[in-house]
Design goal:
2 helices; globular
Amino acid sequence: MTIPALTAKYRSKVAVTQLKKMYSVMSQALLYTVQEDGDYSTTIPYDSTESVKSWYYDTLKPYLKITNECINKAGYWADTGTKLLNGNTPKWNNGNVGIGLGIVVFNTADGYSVIIDSFASGDAEFWGADIESGNFIVIYVDINGKKSRML
């Protein structure tokens, strides 16, 4: 009885540590984009594949160590799609392409899989954000990379 509890606690701590590390990496990259390009309100892409792709290449990518990437196609996200920790499927699940539409998927040198998607303010309530107008990005991170598929 004690071994499964200890294993679950250990896995939880590892996951939290990995999430904190990726959060730090992404936060620093986004801070660099603000220093270079100004306020986020001028850099957030519109809800389209081309605007997300352009924002990623021009604004975010220079500040990250990326091993490979793809735009809106299968190959760098879960081969079987995505399941949330509670076992449910995410609302915008697109199988092995990723989560969302018009997305950029990339893998980092640390082994994480990341998706960048953009949304208009109408979707803000779903994310718990209070955005009356404008656009925002959502960043999905799979801390297991290509190994296992839990968000």
